[in-house]
Amino acid sequence: MKGEVTGSTLKEADLFLEGEVLVNMAKKYGTPLYVYDGNLIIRRFRELHNFIKWPKLRILYAMKANYNIAILKLLKDHGAYIDTVSPAEVHLVLKLGYLPGHILYTANNITDEEMHEVKKTGVLMNIGSLSRLEKYGKAYPETEICLRFNPDVTAGIHEYVRTGGDLTKFGILMQDLPAVKKITDKYHLKVIGLHEHTGSGIAETEKVYQSMKNLLGIAKREDFPDLRFIDFGGGFKVPYSPDEKRINYDQFGKKIAEIFSEFCQEYGNELEMYFEPGKYLVAEAGSLVVQVNTLKDNKGRLIAGTDSGFPHLIRPVVYGAYHEIQNLSNPFKPGTVIKKYDICGNICETGDCFATQRDLPEIKEGDFLAVKNSGAYCYSMGGIYNLRAMPNEVLILNGRDYLVTKRLANEELAESIINGSRKF
Ligand code: LLP
């Protein structure tokens, strides 16, 4: 991995919930079960403020990563703002008490109805296409907006999550600045923010600096005299596998503050700096705990079948993502017998595996396994394919556990399908 890195220390490892806690939760609430560590989320949130020393730093939690309401409330109580991408996300956080001024709505191929619905809430719109800008200007002249530009830098952990570069659907190309100006002038729109998002899980810190510089390069006072903030999106990477290094966020933060400070001096105003992390705040704080119910030996290939599956955690299937798996019932210690397993689910598809050919301490039927780093884009990307309900979600905060989302019983799930369907 390029960029500035440090090894993760024992202290870092100690931050995470103990396997014993996860087993206790599994026994108390049943499996499959999502368990989140609220203290770690708060620690990550605070850390960013220590790394990026800018008096007007705002951290907008990208709630698409995990819309669990306990997490949303916790972050609100600690001063987080919110990055939203759908009207329902906006309604949810407003209902939880977030102020409209602390929410940004990033519009991505939205309909006119969605635009009006969000506009009514008083939440600022972040517009990423000339087409939407024209429609917005016509409907709401002389109002404030944020503009999303494509930073023209390609980075991110998988091609599906690289949002920069002109092959993606995101943001207005910087070369279209004259066309932007024409529309904003025509409708007297007040551009108070500029935005870019380069990708998710960015390993190369230089690419983040480059995106920042590209966006700041067009943030000229003569074109945008009313700027209050610049938003550099999310994408802060966290390690997923045990041998991956953690980025040196201390150095990273210093460099970011330096770049921004230089810009603000030139612009002549100390602007707010926004970042929109999702993974950084919540990925490491979550574990999906599953139970092994069926072991098979297919001509030497060991398959551990569990009571969950890809609709509950789809990242390995969609992005080929690596999630560490721990056998909570037989934790690794020197002398432990290690075997290779495919860790699979209960869904009727061959690809329904959390991991293949993974070395793990010997597994027995009944063992609990933890799929680690499952706090971001796991529950939130989940579904009920094969009509298996989404798991319970538990938040642990200051040593106490809270059942936040209750799993539907099988009959309730069946009932919900009937209730939600048109009556025939
Ligand atoms: N801001 C914008 C405009 C975004 O599109 C995203 C993520 C974020 C912020 C937060 O990015 P983060 O800090 O979480 O990397 N499902 C994929 C990730 C999709 C990211 C989509 N946009 C995954 O599981 O890897």
Number of helices: 13
User: Overall pLDDT, averaged?
Assistant: 93
- What ligand molecules are bound, each kind once? ligand LLP
CATH class of the largest domain: Alpha Beta
Strands, count: 20
* CATH 2nd-level architecture of the largest domain: Alpha-Beta Barrel
- Tell me the number of structural domains: 2
> Which parts are unreliable, with pLDDT below 50 for 5 consecutive residues or more?
1-11
Describe what you observe in this structure.
This protein is an alpha/beta fold and 424 residues long. It folds into 2 domains: 7-32 and 286-374 and 391-410, Beta Barrel (Lyase, Ornithine Decarboxylase, Chain A, domain 1); 38-282, TIM Barrel (Alpha-Beta Barrel), CATH 3.20.20.10. Helices cover 31% and strands 25% of the residues. The protein is built from 13 helices and 20 strands. It has helices at residues 10-14, 19-29, 38-51, 69-77, 87-95, 112-121, 130-139, 177-186, 205-218, 249-267, 279-282, 315-319, 410-420, and strands at residues 5-6, 33-37, 57-62, 81-84, 103-107, 124-127, 144-150, 172-173, 190-195, 229-231, 246-247, 272-275, 286-298, 301-306, 325-327, 338-344, 353-361, 368-371, 392-397, 400-405. Strands 2, 13, 14, 15, 16, 17, 18, 19 and 20 form a 9-stranded mixed β-sheet that branches. Strands 3-4-5-6-7-9-10-12 form an 8-stranded parallel barrel, surrounded by 5 helices. Helix 6 links the parallel strand 5 and strand 6 (124-127). It is globular, with a radius of gyration of 23 Å. The model is unreliable at 1-11 (pLDDT under 50). Bound molecules: ligand LLP. The site of ligand LLP has 22 residues, from helix 11 and helix 12.
